[in-house]
TrEMBL record, chains A, B:
Organism per entry: Actinoallomurus iriomotensis
Official protein name in the record: PadR family transcriptional regulator
Boundaries of every Transcription regulator PadR C-terminal domain copy: 89-168
InterPro entries xref list: Tscrpt_reg_PadR_C, Tscrpt_reg_PadR_N, WH-like_DNA-bd_sf, WH_DNA-bd_sf
Domain of life: Bacteria
Residue span, Transcription regulator PadR N-terminal domain: 7-77
UniProt cross-references to Gene3D superfamilies, sorted A to Z: 6.10.140.190, Winged helix-like DNA-binding domain superfamily/Winged helix DNA-binding domain (1.10.10.10)
Amino acid sequence: MSLRHALLGLLVDRTASGYDLLKLFDTSLANVWPATQSQIYAELNKLADTGLITIAAEGPRGRKQYALTDDGLAELRRWLTETEPQRNVRSEVLLRVFFLGVVSREQAQSYLADLATRFATEENALRELENAVEWDESDLSLYGRIALEYGLRFNTMRREWAEWAADQVK
Amino acid sequence: MSLRHALLGLLVDRTASGYDLLKLFDTSLANVWPATQSQIYAELNKLADTGLITIAAEGPRGRKQYALTDDGLAELRRWLTETEPQRNVRSEVLLRVFFLGVVSREQAQSYLADLATRFATEENALRELENAVEWDESDLSLYGRIALEYGLRFNTMRREWAEWAADQVK
DNA sequence: ACTCTACATTCCAACATTGACATGTCGCGA
DNA sequence: TCGCGACATGTCAATGTTGGAATGTAGAGT
């Protein structure tokens, strides 16, 4: 499961509460590995059970600080270097395109045009995000920049494809 | 659930056995919506329970022919025109890039270079597939061609990005 | 004082997905 | 005729994922 390793990765250079991690998932990892609140808290407790993170409670209830252990960092490194990434291409948008032949040409055209607009909007949002981020020279920001670049290229590719596709169906 | 609608879509212009459908998933839908054998047979029985497909058994055991009903086609059309596609971007490859800062620069470089090679291989395979397919003028092949074009652009984009990324880390 | 929003965690039911195991048919070649 | 590989379906346990409900704290504004 990648959620486990995503949490370990986020805890590498900071300790955080579950809520902090949830925000990080909603912002930086939203387009990479989305996760819900239920999943995150459940997984954090499992990670603590196996000793990959520690939980420091500040009182009987309320905020808890989650921190990576040496075992946790080792597990993250092991995952990155010794296991194969599974490529899991699942696109509902594309699945629909496969079957557009069953609706009218007008409806298909409308669907593709709508995709083009939607992708253009997402691309603009991502460009603004990129412009807003301040980069420093650390390795972490280097890899963050590389990952963001992927997102930007992906969005641009999708927009161009959707525009081309809408044109094909005219 | 998209699996349900993927099955309906595959049954639009043919009847098929579960095994046929499994093969179709492994070939044409592998890079769009992967599914396992267990999932497919279970879902086919559920679809028959709700009247969206019919099952014609050729004997007490052995092959069964699954066929779309009018309700099934209507449900497929409804899904295509009245529901919003959920975009579900989950990429383990990209998740790993986010966290490459925790391994050595050599290992990160090696990972990105490996990705570039892998993506190039996939891109070549897809190009060959595209060249092998004979296109006719029906709408179905139009949408099939559009979907294939997406796959090709996606693979090209990934390869170019991975090459660029590997270069950044040198 | 009141209320609203953000912060913060837990639990649960339902559904989706994976991978393995079990069972059996059919045709072909050694 | 024996065994193999392709065809064909069914079932199970484990795990992953979603979405919602429940509960509570803390601070800021009215």
